Structure formats: C-alpha cells, structure tokens
Amino acid sequence: MNTASRPHKKIIIWFRQDLRIHDNEALDYAIERGDEIIPVFVFDERVFKGKTTYGFAKTGKYRAKFTIESVEDLRTSLRGLGSDLIVRTGKPEEVIYEIAKETQASWVFCNRERMKEELEVQNELEQNLWKGGMEIHFFRGKMLYYTQDLPFPIAHVPDIFTQFRKEVERYIPVREPLPTPTRIQPISTKIERGELPTLADFGHKDFKTDERAVIKYKGGESEALSRLNYYLWETDLITNYKETRNGMIGGDYSSKFSAWLAQGCISPKMIYAELKKYEQQKTKNKSTYWMFFELLWRDFFRLMGKKYGSAIFQKGGTKGEENTDLEDDMAKFRIWKEARTGVPFIDANMRELNQTGFMSNRGRQNVASFLVNDLKVNWQLGAEYFESMLIDYDVCSNWGNWNYLAGVGSDPREDRYFNILTQAKRYDPQGDYIRLWLPELANIPDKKIHEPDILSADEREDLSLKLGADYPKAVISTERWRR
Could you tell me the pTM of the whole model? Predict the structure, then answer.
C-alpha cells in the first residue's frame, strides 16, 4: 500500500470531565489511530453561566475556579507532549462542530456521559457531525469498573449496594490503567488556541481560600497525582483511613480525592493501582480496603444514574415514591442555607460549605437529614444547592446520596434519620469544629457547646451571649434529640 496517498487523519479529542492525560481511553485511541490530534475543551455556557431549577448558580465560584485551574493544567501537560489545548466558551454541540468543519477533522473522540443534560449535548453534536459527514466515537473513563466487565446488564444492576458489592468485588478484576503518553501528534492545522476564561467571565468575583479550609484545593491532574502520592506514599495516612474518615477538621482525616475525581483529573483505576501497589510494598489492612470500598460506592451511584436516568432528579427518586410531607418551604430552606438554624453542628457545616465549597461526608449526611427529617423541606432544594456550591460535585454521587438520605433511593432501610445531637457529640466531642466555624460560641463549655439553647439566662449573661442576636435561636429545640 502506498501510505503517501493515505488521507491525513485528524481526530478531535473533546475533553469533558476527564481532564487528564493518564488512563484516558479516548486520548489513547486517538494517538494510536490519528495523524493529527486536536484536543479541545469547551466551557459550556449553560453550565458555567446558567441557573438550576430553583435559581442557584449551576456552577458556583469554588468549582468554577477549580475547573479553570484543571483546564489550565491540562493545557500545560499537552504542551509538554508537543500538543496544545483549544479552549472555547459556548455550546459544545455547536463549538465542536464548527472546529471539526474548520479543521476538516475525520472524527471526534470523547468519553461518554449518561445523564440527561450531557446526553442531550452529545446527541445533538452527533447529529450535527453526521450532517457534515463526520463521526463521533465514545469511550469510557469515569468508573473503576468497565460496565461490560460487570456480571449483569445495566438494567439488572442490584438496587442495594451490599448486593452489588458482593457480586462484583469477589469475581471481577479491575483493569490496569492505560499508559500515560510520552508524545502526542502536534496540531499542524492553523487554528486559534483560545484564552482561558476568568471567574469574572462567569459572573463570579475572585476570592482567597478561607484559612480554615480543610486543604487549599487546586485543580488539575498534577495536583491530583501529588495528593495521591502524599496520602499513600509520603505520609502513610491511608493506613488509618477507616478510623479517621469521619473527621471534621484539617486535610489529613480523609483522602480528599473527590474534587479531582469529579473533574476526571485522576482516574479511579489509577487510585486503585496505587492502592494495590501500596498493599504489596507496605501494608494491607481494613483501611486500604475501605478506600476501594468508597470507589465502589462511586461506581454504584453512577450505575444507578445509568439505570434510572432522570428519576434520580425527581422528588420520588429511584423508588418513584414521593414523600408528601416535604414542601418547598423557602423560608426554612434559607435558614438552613444561610447557617441560621441555631443548631451549631448544622450551622458550622453549612458555614464551611458556604465559605470553602467543601463539607465532610459526615457533615453532608447530617445537614441533609436535618433539612429533610427535621425541617421537612423538599430534598431537591438541598441537592440543587449542593450542586451549585460543592467543589467536588459529581452528578450521580450528589443526587444518589440525596436520594439515599431522603428515603427515595437505593437503601434497605426505610428511615435514614440522624440524631443531630448524638452525631455532634460523637464526631466533635470537645466542640473544636463548632469553635472553628462559629467563633461566637467559642466560650461555651464543652458540655453545652452543641446545645446553646439550653443555657440558662445566668449562663448566657456570664458568657455575654445573646441568643437571637449574637447567635440565632434554635429553629428546632435540641430537646428533640434528647428524648
């Protein structure tokens, strides 16, 4: 065959929530099959400038900044391999199509997304490309396991996590991560590279990270791999993960991988591979297993999203059973959102979220239970607010967890009610977390730090604390949890 006459194959790599070069199936296939690789990232204007159903910013400032940093890091990595990253803001189904026409690309390669909004975008792009005689090829990259390796089709994925785990972990191996490329075919076609947007472009003011934040999150694959190395190899923190994972203060009580996983800056298979290497070379214990266990939960929620689609966003969840006691009570919701409930454990967690974009897993469970079970507010409001605020927002994990805690998801237990006072005293026994985020309560003795509403008038006077002025009166009396 005369290779000189072979057409020059141009492949667009559309990066989405896979902002990495390691273990990237779409990139790996493109390098193998293409003569010219054209990497592209599009800041979807509907995601970065749009609103949720209840009017929250769809992407708040914390995640917007993290994503911009992640795209910048990806561009730096690609340039180091002889390539570059085309950056645009707009509607991907239109922007990618225009770039494909401009560069006369043969194909668009990307990782497939499964939820409604993402599906609509990729389906519209596919239609546009077909009209122009071009094709889109979909690849995998979000999960620890490949769906084709699972012992059941998507429609038959068990609805109970324990059953899912038992059927998967015992028999199905996790694939090795794909190799990290050492060189990528350069962009030879003349095309404007594009500037990275700023927070101001998305309607946000720049900000400094709160000094109380668990860690100073910075987006990007480089930071993700550095964190993985730190948590396993530099500090051996992984060996105590199961015991410390419910902590509240500081960066070391849990891995904090979630934000990088959500943007695809790190592959779950890469974490697993390093975990297995660590077990072989250092220690294998309950904590190293528990990291794998958490990655399994992440897969499970994604599979629930694939199985049930838009049902995870509906009030009745995957069960299809609405709780008619829950209302769109905006007054109560604002009290919760603005950390004015007068219940310190709830308010401290909500302040942390509002001022850093992050909240511990223990905190998320408690504030969700409080909103649903104590305030009787529609859980969808909480889920949308988390979508807006969380730096580590992942559509399936967020909505799956809210389904779970609201009692409309995959859970063998009917009642996921949390006794807030018991939880507070168990996970913040001396009130250190409360004092960190609610300094106005700093002088309350440990025994009453979680219950300022039971302080006598003399105690409040001695503390110079005016409930209703210095700190809100409790919207729910802590007596509720002492019964």
Answer: 0.95
Judge whether residue 119 has pLDDT over 90.
no
Does residue 344 register a pLDDT over 70? yes
Cα-based angle 466, 472, 478 (whole degrees, multiple of 5): 105
| 53 within 8 A of 350, measured Cβ to Cβ | no
Q: How far apart are CA 305 and CA 365, in angstroms?
A: 20
Could you give the CA distance from residue 51 to residue 388 in angstroms, rounded to a whole number? 9
The 10s digit of each residue's pLDDT in 196-246 is 999 999 999 999 999 999 999 999 999 999 999 999 999 999 999 999 999
Contact 355, 390 (CB under 8 A): no
Alpha-carbon distance of 86 to 101, in angstroms, equals 14
Residue 343, judged by CB atoms within 10 A of its CB (0-12, 13-18, 19+), counts as buried
**Four-CA torsion 45, 67, 348, 418, nearest 10 degrees:** 80
Collapsed DSSP state (helix, strand, coil) of residue 139:
strand
Question: What is the bridge-based pairing of β-strands 135-139 and 10-15?
Answer: unpaired
Is residue 215 helix, strand or coil? coil
At a CB cut-off of 8 Å and minimum separation 6, what does 249 contact? 214, 432, 433, 436
Query: What was the pLDDT predicted at 205?
Result: 95
The two three-digit tokens of residue 382, written as one number: 């909480």
210-235: string of b/e by CB count within 10 Å (b at 16+)? beebbeebbbbbbbbbebbeebbeee
Provide the pairing of β-strand 135-139 with 86-90.
unpaired
The CA distance from 435 to 444, in Å, is 9
Please write the tens of the pLDDT for every residue from 396-416. Answer: 999 999 999 999 987 656 667
Strands 86-90 and 107-111: unpaired
